[in-house]
Write a structure and sequence with these properties.
Shape: globular
Distance between the termini: 23 Å
Mean pLDDT: 85
Strand content: 25-35%
Number of domains: 2
Length: about 325
């Protein structure tokens, strides 16, 4: 039951395990929690009890990893956040999902899909869009880096990497990456085959080639063109495409990565250079990554990556297929 503790606290009391974590130091020092987070003021004894719940949930999740218990890949969530309430957005998995009320269909001529299906975006926001097959199943996402967010980037050429599709949705031009949850080459007007899981796998085009992420954690330094980097709590074990220490040219690399936990692929992500914006009254989709974060997540990287981040900034998006990504740990990974 402890694995559901975080969701229970959020639903019942309006705060999460991370709120509790942030209050530890304050509680130890002042005897009660502060109002700086969502937690109401509580005495030390109560706070200690909540701390036990926090570590109990994380420990059980990590013990699952130790004993090889897999997390069902039946969810779809986007955006890592240190504070779970500020991210891990639920993404519609089917066209009849109640969440689809927040999306509008993009006309076929504008969407320019290369698979049978339809595209859906939040109104006036082309940053993250959904690709639905003819049955109304979510078979992919389009993640866009808007020209307005990347026009000042120096030292990186989006047009030269043979990875992005040029798009113009809501009259906003962008370089867009399409990531599929089933092999797009096999997707027909019949739609994706029925499955209990959100994804069959992860496919995307990288440097002109359709690439599938390894379905299981390779647990090696290199698997194909994916290089093992760090495991980060609440994120998972990262494998970055073509990212290694002795790279000499960063002008055309693609910061796409797979995310692994308990030995299996539980998500993916993409990062790129620039300064992320948010649609007016829209969702804050992207994660701004400081240089320190880059160093922690990508220990095996060339100096030119640091230079690009320092000059231009970096922003990213994590997408997960599991229900509680904020309980992901790294102890047994």
């Amino acid at each position: 039951m402890s694995i559901y503790t975080s969701q229970f606290l959020n639903t019942k009391f309006g705060f999460s395990l991370l709120d509790i974590y942030y209050e530890i130091v304050r509680t130890r020092r002042y005897g009660t929690s502060s109002s700086a987070t969502n937690i109401p003021k509580v005495p030390v004894t109560t706070m200690k009890y909540l701390i036990v719940l926090l570590f109990g949930a994380v420990c059980i999740h990590e013990n699952n990893a130790l004993f090889g218990i897999k997390c069902p890949r039946k969810s779809l969530k986007a955006k890592y956040s240190l504070a779970p309430w500020a991210g891990y957005y639920d993404i519609p998995k089917t066209s009849d999902d109640d969440l689809m009320a927040d999306y509008v269909q993009i006309d076929e001529e504008t969407a320019k899909l290369d698979v049978p299906g339809t595209m859906w975006c939040r109104p006036e926001d082309p940053r993250v869009c959904l690709i639905m097959d003819t049955k109304g199943q979510n078979v992919g996402m389009q993640i866009s880096f808007l020209d307005q967010d990347t026009e000042g980037v120096v030292g990186y050429d989006y047009s030269a990497v043979n990875t992005y599709t040029r798009t113009n949705i809501f009259n906003v031009s962008a370089n867009s990456m399409r990531v599929y949850f089933t092999n797009p080459k096999n997707l027909t007007s019949e739609g994706r085959a029925a499955s209990d899981e959100t994804v069959d796998g992860v496919w995307t085009t990288l440097k002109g080639e359709l690439v599938e992420l390894p379905k299981t954690d390779p647990k090696v330094t290199r698997s194909g063109n994916f290089y093992r980097q760090s495991c980060f709590p609440q994120m998972g074990q990262h494998y970055f495409y073509d990212m290694y220490d002795n790279m000499t040219d960063c002008s055309q690399h693609v910061p796409f990565f797979g995310i692994y936990h308990n030995g299996e692929n539980v998500g993916f992500g993409i990062a790129n250079y620039g300064k992320a914006s948010t649609a007016e009254n829209g969702r804050d989709w992207y994660e701004t990554v400081p240089l320190l974060g880059v160093k922690m997540i990508m220990p095996h990287r060339p100096q030119c990556v640091d230079d690009l981040v320092t000059k231009n900034g970096l922003y990213s998006l994590h997408v997960y297929f599991v229900e509680f990504p904020y309980l992901i740990g790294c102890l047994f990974q």
